[in-house]
Write a structure and sequence with these properties.
Layout: H1 28-48, E1 53-61, E2 69-76, H2 83-103, H3 109-113, H4 118-130, E3 135-136, E4 145-146, H5 147-160, H6 162-175, E5 177-179, H7 180-187
Parallel strand pairs: 3-4
Antiparallel strand pairs: 1-2, 1-5
């Protein structure tokens, strides 16, 4: 665990706004593993859809004695995937976090609510909007999908890949940072190569 907070850009959303912090009434070990499941969801679904995973990690620090904060980060090299697959991997983090609570007997309404990840939803909405695709937060826009529909797509894929997600989450919890090559070796999946001219 770090003694100081990470750089502000690691704690900001894609717009540069600090991500909100939510109280998760769990032990440090339980909360850390939950965040590992969140990031593993992004990484495994992204890799399954053909995205190049650079790293996926759990970030933990202690701002003062007996206090701790946990978050995570997954980075990509290239994202040449179907627009709805990109959105589904964005939704996968929160879904995996809640499933972790359920499978470990830790689920409560308050803990599930603390898994909320609106920054992932907003990033998917903004990225798809750049290409003319619409995601409605609470409704189905003409020619688009609702966030509920995107979550449904992600939930089905998470169910199919739960063994891989679980494997990656436990390894990430143990090692803190995994590379795309690490994740591919752990799961037998293929990490898509970087597109020509792209930098990792």
């Amino acid at each position: 665990m770090r003694a100081t907070a990470p750089a502000p850009e690691l704690l900001a959303d894609h717009r540069g706004t600090p991500r909100p912090t939510l109280h998760m009434p769990l032990s440090y070990e339980q909360a850390r593993l939950g965040l590992a499941f969140h990031e593993a969801g992004h990484a495994v679904l992204g890799m399954a859809y053909g995205m190049h995973v650079q790293t996926s990690e759990v970030i933990a620090w202690s701002p003062e004695p007996d206090k701790w904060t946990v978050t995570g980060n997954t980075t990509w090299g290239t994202c040449n995937v179907d627009q709805w697959q990109f959105a589904a991997q964005a939704a996968a983090g929160e879904i995996c976090h809640v499933l972790y609570l359920m499978t470990c007997g830790l689920w409560t309404p308050d803990r599930a609510a603390a898994c909320a990840s609106p920054h992932d939803r907003e990033q998917a909405i903004d990225v798809l909007a750049e290409f003319g695709y619409r995601i409605g937060r609470t409704y189905v826009p003409e020619g688009g999908k609702s966030w509920g529909m995107v979550r449904g797509m992600a939930r089905r894929k998470v169910g199919y890949l739960w063994r891989e997600i679980r494997t990656v989450a436990h390894a990430m919890n143990e090692h803190t940072v995994l590379t795309g090559a690490d994740i591919a070796a752990l799961t037998g999946m293929t990490n898509a190569p970087l597109a020509e001219g792209a930098t990792s």
